[in-house]
Amino acid sequence: MSVFRNSIMMDLSARQAEITALLIESEFLSVDGLSERYSVTAQTIRRDLNVLCEAGLARRRHGGVEKPLPSGNIAYGSRQVLLRGEKQAIARKVASQIPDNTSLAFSIGTTPESVAAALLHHDALKVFTNNLNIALLACANPTFEVNVAGGKVRNSDGDVLGAGLETFLSSYLFDYGIYGVAGVEADGTLLDFSEREVRARQLIHENSRSTFLVLDHSKFGRSAHVRGGQITQVTKIFTDREPSREIIDRIDDSDAELVICDEESAQ
């Protein structure tokens, strides 16, 4: 993914971002339907859809667009604009449960990044992360101590993975570990797109007193091919909608706590 294409993703209009979110819930969106929904011309909608297709967020189909073919994770810049309001609601709720003067380990991911942004009004946090986006964000608060893993940066996500990260995460005991996942199976299995991402998440889990899994509703039932842990193994699960009955029953039978973060409860 080129820098130019990433800039397109970050500059989506509000309507384009909303169309992208609608496509998560739908198999197909028609030009005519979107034109009526937003009270704009079909030509305007086609321009919007061209932007989304160029960014890899949609796939052209006669009369409209469908979801892109699954070929790995969506680019980081694209994920930053998807379900932004839902992620911010989750982030505010998590931030309300984090006291000042504590240590936190953050994984890669746009929802953990939203949590970091919501914590910027806290005081004297110690932040440990392999996510350069979060590290730079946390530096905006002069009372924070920011610690970053060393190693090779993955350009697509702005993160560090590998042996150096494993040594880094294993050297501390964090008050809170905050991480996301690519997907959750119906049986509660957590999924990611690479073994290294799973290993990083597992190390945060193993070295944290409390673990917060943060994920929007689109992750439930989403496919990824690397298994790594169970949703019931975390301290708390923060999401914006109730998952399936099967997932809820599994959580109820465990020590984990499910926290639903709608706009009202997140205030």
Explain the overall architecture:
- The protein has 11 helices and 15 strands.
- A 7-stranded parallel beta sheet has the order 6-5-4-9-12-14-15, sandwiched between helices. A 3-stranded antiparallel beta sheet has the order 1-3-2.
- The chain is 38% helix and 21% strand.
- The radius of gyration is 19 Å and the shape is globular.
- By secondary structure, the chain is of the alpha/beta class.
Largest beta-sheet characterization: 7 strands, parallel
| Protein structure class | alpha/beta
Task: Summarize the amount of helix as a percent range.
Answer: 25-40%
- Coarse morphology: globular
Number of strands: 15
Average of the residue pLDDT scores: 87
Secondary-structure element order, N to C: HHEHHEEHHEHEHEEEHEEEHEEEHE
Proportion in β-strands: 15-25%
Strand order of the largest sheet: 6-5-4-9-12-14-15
Calculate Rg over CA atoms: 19 Å
Count the DSSP helices.
11
End-to-end distance: 36 Å
Q: Which stretches are poorly predicted, pLDDT < 50 over at least 5 residues?
A: 1-10
Give the key terms.
alpha/beta, 11 helices, single chain, 7-stranded parallel beta sheet, 267 residues, 15 strands, globular, 21% strand
Helix-strand blueprint:
Elements: H1 3-10, H2 14-25, E1 28-30, H3 31-38, H4 42-54, E2 59-61, E3 64-66, H5 76-81, H6 84-95, E4 103-106, H7 110-118, E5 126-129, H8 132-138, E6 145-148, E7 153-154, E8 159-160, H9 163-169, E9 174-179, E10 183-184, E11 189-192, H10 195-206, E12 208-214, E13 226-230, E14 236-239, H11 245-252, E15 257-260
